[in-house]
Amino acid sequence: MKATVDEETCIGCELCVDTCPGVFEMADDKARVKINEVPEDTVKSCREAAENCPVEAITLEE
């Protein structure tokens, strides 16, 4: 699975970083993905982060 963050849409709430710190990090007050492929052990929390994003800035590709 691959995750992406639309930095234009992101409001910098840090919810994704709190939910899945293994995949997301903050840079310049916006979230970004810090790895290319989501590790198997973080898939569940990554999905949760995408579902809970208040502005739907996270996209997941299988």
What topology emerges from the helices and strands here?
Layout: E1 2-5, H1 15-19, E2 24-27, E3 30-33, H2 43-52, E4 58-61
Antiparallel strand pairs: 1-4, 2-3
Structure description:
The protein is of the alpha+beta class. It has one domain: Alpha-Beta Plaits (2-Layer Sandwich), CATH 3.30.70.20. The protein is built from 2 helices and 4 strands; from the N terminus they run E-H-E-E-H-E. It has helices at 15-19, 43-52, and strands at 2-5, 24-27, 30-33, 58-61. The protein has a two-stranded antiparallel ribbon with strand order 1-4. Strands 2-3 form a two-stranded antiparallel sheet. A hairpin with a 2-residue loop joins strand 2 and strand 3. The radius of gyration is 10 Å and the shape is globular. The model has no long low-confidence stretch (mean pLDDT 97).
